[in-house]
C-alpha cells in the first residue's frame, strides 16, 4: 500500500478562478498536514486597520514596537483565534514544527514574549486559519484551484503581504499575470 504524502511546510497558491472568493489570491502556509487533515495560515492578506500593537493591547499587553506590524487574515475558520508563524529561536508549550527553522504557536505566551522583547526574531501574526478535513486537501489538489510549491518562509516573511503571491509564483518561474481560470482544449 502506498504511503500517504503530506505537505506541511509547503505553500499553497490560489489559482485564478479557484471558485471560492475567500481564497482568491491566497498564499497558504501549510502548517499541519497529516491523517487528521490540514491547517494553513494565509500569508497574503492583511486585516485592514489592525496592527499587532492594537491586537496586543486587547490582551493588556503594551507593545509600541508593534505599531506598524500588520495582522494577517489567516483564514475563514475561527477568525478570532490567533496564530504566530515564527522562527524557532523561541519555543513555547504549544509549538508545532512547520518547516526548517519555522514553527506555529497559538498561545498567549508568544505574544507576551514579543511584547517583552524576548520573542522570536521573525514572525507573522494571523487571526483565523484555513482548515481541511481528512482527505479534503488531497482531493482539492487534484483539481485546478491550488498550485503547491516548496515553502520559503524566510522569503515570505521579508515581503509585504500583497507581494507574497507574485513573489512565490516568480520563484517558480511563473508570471502570475499569464495565468487564467479554467483549462482549454486543442
Shape: globular
Order of helices and strands: EEEEHEEEEHEHEHH
Strand content: 25-35%
- How much helicity do the residues have? 10-25%
Structural class, from helix and strand content? alpha+beta
Family: Belongs to the UPF0301 (AlgH) family.
InterPro entries: AlgH-like
Protein name: UPF0301 protein GGR44_000264
Pfam families: DUF179
SSE topology:
Elements: E1 10-14, E2 27-34, E3 37-42, E4 46-51, H1 52-57, E5 70-73, E6 77-87, E7 96-99, E8 102-105, H2 108-115, E9 123-132, H3 136-141, E10 146-150, H4 153-157, H5 161-171
Parallel strand pairs: 5-9
Antiparallel strand pairs: 1-2, 1-10, 2-3, 3-9, 4-5, 6-8, 6-9, 7-8
Organism: Sphingobium fontiphilum
Family: Belongs to the UPF0301 (AlgH) family.
Protein name: UPF0301 protein GGR44_000264
Describe the structure.
The protein is an alpha+beta fold and 186 residues long. It has a single domain (10-178), classed as VC0467-like. 19% of the residues lie in helices and 34% in strands. Strands 1, 2, 3, 4, 5, 6, 7, 8, 9 and 10 form a 10-stranded mixed sheet that branches. The longest helix has 11 residues, at 161-171. The protein is globular.
Amino acid at each position: 500500500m502506498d504511503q500517504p504524502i503530506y505537505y506541511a511546510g509547503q505553500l499553497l497558491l490560489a489559482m485564478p478562478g479557484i471558485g471560492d472568493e475567500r481564497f482568491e489570491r491566497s498564499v497558504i502556509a501549510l502548517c499541519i498536514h497529516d491523517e487528521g487533515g490540514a491547517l494553513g495560515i494565509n500569508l497574503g492578506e492583511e486585516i485592514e486597520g489592525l496592527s499587532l500593537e492594537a491586537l496586543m493591547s486587547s490582551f493588556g499587553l503594551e507593545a509600541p514596537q508593534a505599531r506598524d506590524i500588520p495582522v494577517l487574515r489567516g483564514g475563514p475558520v475561527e477568525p478570532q483565534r490567533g496564530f504566530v508563524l515564527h522562527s524557532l529561536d523561541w519555543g513555547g508549550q504549544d509549538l508545532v514544527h512547520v518547516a526548517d527553522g519555522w514553527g506555529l504557536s497559538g498561545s498567549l505566551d508568544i505574544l507576551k514574549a514579543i511584547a517583552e522583547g524576548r520573542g522570536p526574531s521573525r514572525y507573522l501574526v494571523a487571526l483565523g486559519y484555513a482548515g481541511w478535513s481528512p482527505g479534503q486537501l488531497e482531493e482539492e489538489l487534484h483539481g485546478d484551484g491550488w498550485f503547491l510549491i516548496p515553502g520559503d518562509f524566510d522569503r515570505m516573511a521579508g515581503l509585504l503581504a500583497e507581494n507574497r503571491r507574485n513573489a512565490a509564483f516568480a520563484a517558480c518561474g511563473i508570471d502570475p499575470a499569464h495565468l487564467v481560470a479554467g483549462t482549454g482544449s486543442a
